[in-house]
Every structure is written in structure tokens, then in C-alpha cells.
């Protein structure tokens, strides 16, 4: 049995985050969740989001966007206004240019703002994310190499950097939420 959601929430709780008077006014969200909706939205990510909210942790999830707004700008703004980003890597994460652009922005905020980043490897191996292999690599290969050729190198570097972060692997057969 994996205790991932509890561990992830505990390590992302506001008590473990550095605070200063300027930080408290600067961040809109404690946590930004980056995930591929078709893979994890109605299972793992939904459970994680619920757990964070139950603990009083202000969490951004993309279904909170108001209709009619420029989604990409709103997502980028939410990333910038978050203290911590949790990236849920799943089999099809790399097939989404939106996810990959979020990842690049998250890592930029990590460097420029000191944003904390946590990685969850949901039914994917971190080395497959790092090297774009296996099913994860196949999903990445579905992107139009010609259309996004100017971004491919940046996306690959971001995947490698994020996969090198300490994270939580969650494999098939492990609990997605606390069974109690």
C-alpha cells in the first residue's frame, strides 16, 4: 500500500513551506497541479486535489478556469502565482503540448522564483520520462515534430530535468487514495 497522497500533501503543506511577509502576499495558490486530464483527472489527481483542499491548502486545478478566458495565459499566471507545483507524470502526459508548456514554465519558476516542484510518476518509470522511452516516449512521439521543432529540444530538456527531481513513483496495484 502506498501512502503517496498523504506524503505528497504533507510535504506540500503550508507548514513546510518557507514564508515571509512578501511571500504571503505574492502567492495566490499554495499548489499548482499539472497533469494530463485523460489519464489522471478523475482518479489520482482528483483524490490528491481533494486531500489538499481538505487540509486547507489552496490548490489550482485547471477545471477552475472561467469560460472565455485565454487558457494558456491563465495557466501560466496560475503557475507563477503558486508556491509549489506538483507534476503528475502519466503515460500520455508528453502527448500534450499544453502539459509540456506548463512543465517548461514550472521549471522556469523553480529557477527564477525558487518555486518548489514535486514529481509524481503515475504508472510510468522516471527513467522513461527522463529519456522519453516506452509508452511515455511513444506518447511524446505523437507530437508533430515539424510543427513544434522549435520547442522539442526545450521540452526534452524539461522532461529530463523534472525526471531528475526526487519524486514519488505510483505503480499499478498501489492505492490511489487512502483506503481508510
Provide structural commentary:
This protein is of the alpha/beta class and 180 residues long. The chain has one domain: Rossmann fold, CATH 3.40.50. 48% of the residues lie in helices and 16% in strands. The chain has 9 helices and 5 strands. The chain has helices spanning 4-12, 21-26, 37-40, 44-54, 71-80, 97-113, 126-131, 134-141, 149-163; strands at residues 29-35, 59-60, 82-89, 116-122, 167-170. It has a 5-stranded parallel sheet, with helices on both faces. Helix 1 crosses helix 4 (44-54), helix 5 (71-80) packs parallel to helix 6 (97-113) and helix 6 (97-113) packs across helix 9. It is globular. The N and C termini lie close together (12 Å).
Gist of the model:
With 180 residues, the protein is α/β, with parallel strands linked by helices. It is built from nine helices and five strands; from the N terminus they run ααβααβαβαβαααβ. The longest helix is centred in the middle third of the chain and has 17 residues.
What attributes characterize this protein structure?
single chain, about 180 residues, Rossmann fold, 9 helices, disordered N terminus
Amino acid at each position: 500500500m502506498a501512502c503517496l497522497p498523504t506524503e505528497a500533501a504533507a510535504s506540500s503543506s503550508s507548514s513546510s513551506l518557507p514564508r515571509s511577509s512578501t511571500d504571503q502576499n505574492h502567492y495566490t495558490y499554495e499548489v499548482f497541479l499539472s497533469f494530463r486530464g485523460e489519464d489522471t483527472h478523475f482518479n489520482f489527481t482528483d483524490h490528491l486535489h481533494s486531500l489538499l483542499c481538505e487540509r486547507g491548502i489552496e490548490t489550482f486545478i485547471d477545471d477552475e478556469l472561467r469560460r472565455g478566458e485565454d487558457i494558456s495565459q491563465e495557466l501560466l499566471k496560475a503557475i507563477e502565482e503558486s508556491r509549489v507545483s506538483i507534476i503528475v507524470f502519466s503515460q500520455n502526459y508528453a502527448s500534450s503540448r499544453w502539459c509540456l508548456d506548463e512543465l517548461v514554465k514550472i521549471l522556469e519558476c523553480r529557477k527564477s522564483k525558487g518555486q518548489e516542484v514535486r514529481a509524481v510518476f503515475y504508472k510510468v518509470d522516471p527513467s522513461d520520462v527522463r529519456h522519453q522511452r516506452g509508452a511515455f516516449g511513444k506518447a511524446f512521439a505523437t507530437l508533430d515534430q515539424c510543427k513544434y521543432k522549435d520547442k522539442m529540444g526545450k521540452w526534452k530538456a524539461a522532461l529530463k530535468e523534472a525526471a531528475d527531481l526526487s519524486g514519488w513513483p505510483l505503480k499499478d496495484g498501489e492505492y490511489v487514495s487512502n483506503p481508510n
